[in-house]
Amino acid sequence: MPDPVMPDPVMPDQERADDAIADPSRQFKTPTDVLRDTRLDVDTKRAILESWKKDAELLSTAANENMTGGESAGPILQEVTIALETLETTSGRVN
User: Fold this and answer.
1) 3-34: per-residue pLDDT in tens?
2) How far apart are CA 71 and CA 88, in angstroms?
């Protein structure tokens, strides 16, 4: 199975992680790909997914106010929420 992450071969791991937190979709195709990345620790995965969730929530709010260019946040928001729940369950940090 190919690596779901689209890493920049010259970008150091911390810089790549920071870039993924700033814009998760630039480094990952789906929220599940974040969970599958074995190079990231749990806290970094959580930070990336929380960032993605915030972006999706902002897009959803904009869509509710008819301020988008046609993008829909519904599916990605659901995917991110599921990924965060999975991360919490598998890391032993269930709320």
Assistant:
1) 555 555 556 788 999 999 999 999 999 999 99
2) 28
